[in-house]
Write a structure and sequence with these properties.
The chain is an alpha/beta fold and about 260 residues long. About 40% of the residues lie in helices and about 20% in strands. It has a seven-stranded mixed β-sheet, with helices on both faces.
Length: about 260
């Protein structure tokens, strides 16, 4: 998650990825990438020119490399781009890193597939970025996007939106300690989800339960740290993509809490 409201936010998330630079575990796996973009067939990117907008520490990038695209453009405005380079230093695929914001993308009908997973919902000027992405794609090129969803997140939003009013001002070390405490509570909640039909049960069992305690702590940290996070309704996702120029699109409700969209130019 890497394109943000202003320079201070970019610096803040650059620091976050330096502090949380490991991309291992289920959280950094090919399996979770497949889950995030489902039903898009990742094998389609073989020998194609692709781009990731908001590479952060490079966890998605690492898994895209495994699918043998011809070339990858990696967009990241923060200092986290150095972490992404380090985590992908042995890549056999050519990766062209660009330390720019999504608003500054200037490709012109050059890219076959563009990915932005967990990023656009942190950009207030999302429509500008999506328009730039549309212009960057070749005819029939596709944009694969994953966004926080509003539907299915009502209880979560009630709790975390209020917490975020405080936690976004916390120093990273203090927020890290607070995330450990919340993670202990989350572990109990995940256990109960096995036996009770609680809110976000699908996400708890199919995603968070597969992550290590350390990675769940980071996910909590990542949820509480941003100065800007938008939770999109399905209608808002559709409107965003149509206003950006896309006319052919599919939208899927991932684990009943977030949106995966596949939009074709």
């Amino acid at each position: 998650m890497s394109n943000y409201k202003n320079k201070d936010s970019i610096k803040d998330f650059g620091k976050q990825f330096k502090y949380h630079d490991k991309i291992d575990d289920y959280w950094g796996s090919h399996e979770i990438l497949k889950d995030m973009v489902n039903p898009f067939d990742l094998n389609l990117i073989k020998n194609k020119i692709i781009c990731e907008v908001g590479v952060g520490s490079g966890r998605i990038l690492k898994n895209l490399v495994r699918l043998s695209p011809k070339k990858i453009f990696a967009i990241e405005p923060s200092d986290a781009i150095e972490i992404a380079k380090k985590n992908n230093r042995y890549s056999e695929v050519e990766i062209l890193y660009k330390k720019i914001s999504g608003q500054m993308i200037n490709f012109n009908n050059e890219i076959d597939y563009i990915f932005s997973l967990g990023v656009i919902h942190h950009i207030p000027e999302a429509e500008i970025v999506c328009k730039k992405i549309y212009e960057s794609l070749k005819p029939k090129g596709k944009f694969i996007i994953w966004l926080y969803g509003k539907e299915g997140n009502e209880l979560y939003l009630f709790i975390f939106n209020n917490l975020r009013k405080i936690t976004k001002f916390m120093p990273d070390k203090l927020l890290n300690l607070f995330s450990i405490f919340l993670n202990l509570m989350l572990s109990i909640y995940i256990f109960l989800c096995k036996y009770i039909n609680l809110p976000l049960k699908n996400y708890m069992i199919n995603v968070l339960k597969k992550c290590s305690f350390e990675k769940r702590k980071y996910i909590i940290f990542d949820q509480l740290n941003p100065s800007y996070s938008k939770y999109y309704t399905k209608h808002e996702v559709k409107t965003l993509l149509i206003k950006s120029g896309f006319k052919k699109l599919e939208i899927f409700h991932r684990h009943k809490y977030s949106w995966t969209a596949i939009a074709e130019k």
